[in-house]
Write the C-alpha cells for this entry.
Amino acid sequence: MNIPKLVMKNLTRRKGRFMFTLLGITIGIASFVTLLSLGGSLKEEINRQAGELGANLVVTPKGWCAYEQISVLTGEQLPEAIPFDEVKKISAIKGLKAVPYLIEKTAYQNSPVPVIGILPEEMKIFKGWDIEKGDYFITVDEKSLVIGSGIAQQFKLSPADELTIRGERFRVKGILKETGSKDDIAVFIPLSVAQKLYGVGDKVSFIAIKVDDISKLDEYIQKIQDTSNVAVVSDKQLLRSVLSIVGTVSLTLQLIAAVAILAAGFGIINTMMTAIHERKREIGILQAIGAKQRTVFNIFLLESGLYGLLGGIIGLAIGLVFSSVAAPYISQNEFNAFMKGSTLAVTFDLKLIFGSLLFSLLISLISGFYPAWRASRLSPVEAISYE
Amino acid sequence: MNDTAIKTENLIKTYNTGKVKTHALRGVTLEVPRGSFSCITGPSGHGKSTLMHLMGGLDRPTEGRVLIDDLDITGLSNSALAELRAKKIGFIFQFFNLLRSLTAQENIEAAMMFSGATEKEQKEKAQELLLLLGLSEKLKAKPSELSGGQQQRVAIARALANDPEILLMDEPTGNLDSESESEVLEHIFKLHKEGKTIVIVTHNSEIAKKAETIFLIKDGKLDRR
C-alpha cells in the first residue's frame, strides 16, 4: 500500500460522484483548450491571408468599420462604394499598382460562393496567377468565369462547364492553379460584367495597392488621399485592427471558459467537503493507526489534485480533437469562414498543452486546500466516534 | 526500561460543550505493568473510553500526564503522537473500524505504511498475520464481505502489524455473537501469553475474570480492585 494507491481507491469508491466532478473540470478545460487553440490558429490564418492579399495598402470608402476590414481578408461580400473614376485617379499615381475588387456573392448547389469582379490582366499580374486548366480571360468584358482550384474541386467543375449567377449562365473558361489563399474558393469575372450583373453602376468595393518603394508608404498614403476622397490603410494597420478584434473576441471566450473551470473548482470543493463529512470516521481511523496530520492533508489534497490532473488530460485531449475536427462545422460566421476551404491547421503548441494542464491542476489544488486542511485538523477521537 | 508500560498521573479530562462543562475524568492515577493483562470496567458513560483514548495518545488531557515507557506523551506534538501510535500502540475498537474501501490485506498494509514499512514488507507481514488469525482465504475480501468476527480478527491483525508493545482495546467483543467472541478472545489471550501489554475496556465479566489488574472507573474516578 502507498499513498497514491490509497488516494485512487478513495476517489473511485463513489464512481458516479467521481465521474460528475471529473466531467465538470473536463468540460471546463476542453472548452478552454478549444477556444485557446482556435484563437491561436485563427490569428495565424489571418496573418497568412493578409500575406496572400499581396497588397501594401488597401483603399476603402471612408467610414468603413472593423467588420468590413475583416471582410477584406475573409472575402465576404462587401458594399460597393468607390466609383471607378477614383480607381483611375489612384492608378495614375506614379510608383504604385492599383487593382479594384468588387466582392459579391452567389449560391451554387446551396453553398455560398464569393463572386469577385476584377480587371483581368491587372489582377493576373498583381497576384501572379497561373492557369491550371483551360484559358484565362482575353477581353475585359467577356461573359465567362475563371474559378479557383478549391471551387473546381468542391463542385467538380471543369472548363466549359456552366454556372448560373443571378439568373445568367456563365461558362467556366479556366481554373487557377492552387494559391493556398481565399482565391482558391472564389469565382472571378471581369469587373464590368460583375458591375452590370449586380447593378452597382461603376462602383467597386475596395482597391488593393502594391507600391514600388515600401519605405515610402506614408507618402503614398498622403498622395492617394490628396487625389481621392477615400480612406487608406496599410496592410499592417489592417492586420493589427483585425487581430485586435479577433484577440478581444478570443479573450472574452477564454474568460468565459476560465469561469467554467472556476465553477468546476467549486464542484471539487463541494465533492471534497462531502467526502470529508462521509469519511470522518475513516479519517479518525487513519489517525489512530498512525497517519500524521500532514499525511491526512496530503491524501485529500492529492485526491483533489487528481481531479485536476485527470480532468486536465481528458479535457485537453477532447479540446484538441474538438478544435481540429469539429469546430469548422459549428457555424458559418466571419471567423470560421477563414477555416472553410482553407488549410487551417489547429495550433498544438506545448505552451497551450502544459499551460492548460497546469491551470487545471492549480485550480483543483487550490480547491482542495481548504477541505484537506479541514480533514487534517479533525481530532482523532471526535472523528473516530463519529457515526 | 522499567516494569511500567503505561502510567497516568492525576488525569483530568473536561469537555466544554457550550456553556456546560462535562467532567469525563476527575484525576485518574494508575500504572499498567509491562506484559500485563488489564481491564478497565465500570458503568457506561463514566469515562472508561476517555481514559483509553488518553492512554493511547488519541486525545489530550485537560490536566495530568500520561507516560508510556517513561516518556511523557502529553507534551508531544501531533506529529510525534501519530508516530507513537503507529509504532508503539495497537488499537482495537468495538465497531472494528476497518477502512471500507480496502481489502483485509490492504487494511493491514495501510497501518504498516504509516510506520514506514516497504510495500514488500507490508505484503508479507499482512499475509502472515491473516494466516495466523485464520483468514488466509479472506485476503482480498472487503470488510462488507466479512462477518463481524472476521472483521474483528482483521482489526487485531492490523493492530499487530507494526508489532506494538501495547494493545488498547475498547469493547473488542461488544459487537460479536458468542461464537465469534470466543474466537476473538482466544486470540487476545494468546497475545498476552506472547508478552504484549493488553488493556481492555469491557463490560464482559469473562474477560474481567482473566485480567491480572482491573481498573474500575466510576464518575471519572478510579476504584482499583
